[in-house]
């Protein structure tokens, strides 16, 4: 078992009577990328800001390598690199000056790695921050974060404003952190971004974690997508246990099926002159939307 870098236990946060975070608990190990998923307003940024001490937790505990983050923020912040979704910079300083300032504030130095990142992310470090687009402001913060040698990297919607090439560069650097044994918390509503790099994920809704695990395990309890070509009308398959969203157009049928019912359904398919068969795991986006749809249906049923 790898070292546990971050441990969050039973965090609650209220804004007046509004219960913004509800007993949020998770942990992140060394060499792990943890995806923190939810739409805007789900509580992702509130959790991160509470964890960092920007907001005060009403109850709960956060530890970084055994150190109480909520009680000792100065010590723990030097072991964390953080990039928010909206980066605000000193307008009169150049990008290069801000990168160096951010590094010094965290007790780090400008190294050859910093220069490599500036070139990789195609940032002009000589320009004043007031001239930067949103994407360039994000680059400044990302370069400073990736330049730092810390225990935990926290990225909250980090690629907002970046073009597709720079998003790939971001993913590549996150994978490098993983190989180096660092812990990464990646909060995002861009599911394709998280799916490519994460090891485990938590889905948060209305301030409460509704599911947590690795993608493979979560996929195993979700419906499989089936597409097949048959020689006969197969409408009767729609009545089988576990079959959902059945449709047939000419010789092509599509439907979803629960894992435990797959073998019985595929055996039944043979009766209809099976020509071709494709079975696919649900994507992270489909899994995510299924959880949100199920939660919404439960609320409406109350």
Automatic annotation (TrEMBL):
Keywords assigned: ATP-binding, Nucleotide-binding, Transport
GO molecular function: ATP binding; ATP hydrolysis activity
Signal sequence interval, chain numbering: none
A Pfam family it matches: ABC_tran
Stored SMART domains: AAA
Keyword Nucleotide-binding tagged: yes
InterPro entries documented for this protein: AAA+_ATPase, ABC_transporter-like_ATP-bd, ABC_transporter-like_CS, ABC_transporter_ATP-binding, P-loop_NTPase
Keyword Transport: yes
Superkingdom of source: Bacteria
Family statement drawn from the similarity comment of this UniProt entry: Belongs to the ABC transporter superfamily.
Name used for this protein in its record: ABC-2 type transport system ATP-binding protein
Organism of provenance: Weissella soli
